[in-house]
Amino acid sequence: MPASFNLQVAHHLTVLIRMARSINVVTVLALGLVAVLPCILSQELFYQLPTPYSYSCLNDTCSRDKNPEDSPSTQSLSKCRLLCGEYRSIWPRPTGTVDLADELVSFKPQRLFINWAHPPSAKIRDMLQQAAKTFQTELLKMHPNYDQNSQAGKQPNPFVKKYTGDIERTTVMVSLKIDTAEDRLTLTTNESYALGLNTSENGVVEVKIHAPTFFGARNALETLSQLINYEDTCDCLIMVRHGYVEDEPAFPYRGLMIDSGHNYLSPKAIKKVIDAMAYNKLNTLHWHITDSHSFPFYSRRAPKMALYGAYSPNKIYYPTVVREIVDYANERGIRVVPEIGGPSRAGNGWQWGEREGKGDLVVCLNKEPWKEFCNEPPCGQLNPLNNETYQILGRVYRDALESFSGTDFFHMGADDVNYACWNSSDAMNDVLKATAQIANDVTFQRLWMEYQSRALQTLYDGTPEGTEKPVPIIWDSKLTSLRDSEVVLDPDTYVIQIKSPAREPNLAKIINRGYKLIFSNADAWSLDCGFNSGLNPPLGLTPAQQAPVLPPCGGDFKTWKTIYDNDPMNIAATHHNNETAAFTQVIGGAGTMWTTETDDMTLETKLWPRAAALAERLWTNPTQSWREAAPRLDAHRDRLVQRGVRAEAIRPEWCFHNRVECELLL
């Protein structure tokens, strides 16, 4: 292309921009396009023009000026979001001191450096190096020309260019100070941090981060990244010039449950969930790795489980893959908690016992009509009267604890037991008759309690030497609501994860027994609900029984507003005889994503940005409603998309620019 053409277009655009600043914008655009377009169109080229709109902060909300030609100055949306409101666009909202200046500084990411003096251990040094690398990559992703689909390390830096003097000279120096060598997240890990920013007259931005642990420092880096935006007028990055943030989470357990038992989730998809969790300061990935549908976890000591239980040889999680995911999560401040359920939610994968001479390990497998024997097809429950069941379970537990090394929790399931399933088993009934036991609900209730006691001991026996026994988590169920169930389910041993609706009367029994609690109440935090009308009626039912089977959450879609306003402390206090005691029992919560109709293709959009609302509830536990958070969530959803997360739209983009007029759509 001739050099004279480029110079000609550049000259036209320069004149056009200068004119736009001094006279009527519409007139200038018309004149400018008349002059430039023939030149552009003849060469099949197109040039971007700067937006004529400016944004003002009104009531902690950025709104576009209605008459751009009357605006005294131009302020972009990206600048406004860094200057508007006490918390700007930080998500989740900090819980401590926030003091941010109303000034910005421009820089290029090549001039941002992260350093740390005397890391507490070599492992922490390696984790800091990974965190710094991730942080630098997130800065590059802010550029609109960044290619999210390029291979890692292959993406050219879109900020490589010559900038004006101030931008070229500005240097951002980030220094990290960490007090302890703690490199695995536990319930007692201190995730707090202090973050200070100060810009000197010579153009050096000093960012000082102090945290007790690596996990707090990583949270601080996430907050820092949210005080930086891309600015198109300079094709550079901008950040808050001065500021100070102190922050710590309200709850130590802030989770998401994903389910690879119903539908297989690829390791790549799981890592993307972990990335998005880190952007939201969620710290626990609860991995429901097996179910009655499939058993994709490879147990080295019991390989037939995956052989018979996986959907295909390509859909198996081998130990190396699991460890890679666990380490990937740990570097991003996230623990991975495995769930291998029993005695229910166990079916395919356990059916090989009889042909191997071990008897029935599982009963009522794939039995119809399923509605009589389980909550959803395929049916299946472990045989608690077969000693071989516990032998195999022990092998699986041992391999899981080795693969999910360092986990402080282990989820044992223990929900949705159907007594009719056990009663339909000839093998179980033969044992009951031989021991003069009656096959009724009382007997099956006792068997369930005996199973849980033996399963817990089996878990403990499988704990590798030199490691602490994991804390068992179970779902709330008929078992946890039984009279005197605490005799078997010791409140000092078990953590109960509540999935029942918040108003379930039986919750009072559980909460008043003093258990530590994780809330996942299905009426607010079941993220999979609302995408269908329920399961089809099972085979073999009469016409009167042919109503669709709805999930426990009633099938209603949970909006981000419902998720945000769900306060686990209030739920616990409502059911507890002692409000103060209730508050000490709640360790956090988790949103649940059962993959009945979800796989890699839809996982992200179903999770985000609704799980971001969950994240702020669990980090901040705000007293305000969702309305205060709405402007920040708009900005945060944009940020998630910018970073490659397929977060669904909350409302029309027009509303981001015209918030006052769009309030009715909130």
UniProtKB/TrEMBL annotation:
The lineage of its organism: Eukaryota, Metazoa, Ecdysozoa, Arthropoda, Hexapoda. Residues 251-621 form the Glycoside hydrolase family 20 catalytic domain. It catalyses: Hydrolysis of terminal non-reducing N-acetyl-D-hexosamine residues in N-acetyl-beta-D-hexosaminides. This is Beta-hexosaminidase. GO terms for cellular component: plasma membrane. Keywords: Glycoprotein, Glycosidase, Hydrolase, Signal. Belongs to the glycosyl hydrolase 20 family. GO terms for molecular function: beta-N-acetylglucosaminidase activity. Its EC number is 3.2.1.52. InterPro entries: Beta_hexosaminidase_sua/sub, Glyco_hydro_20_cat, HEX_eukaryotic_N. The keyword Flavoprotein does not apply. It comes from Allacma fusca.
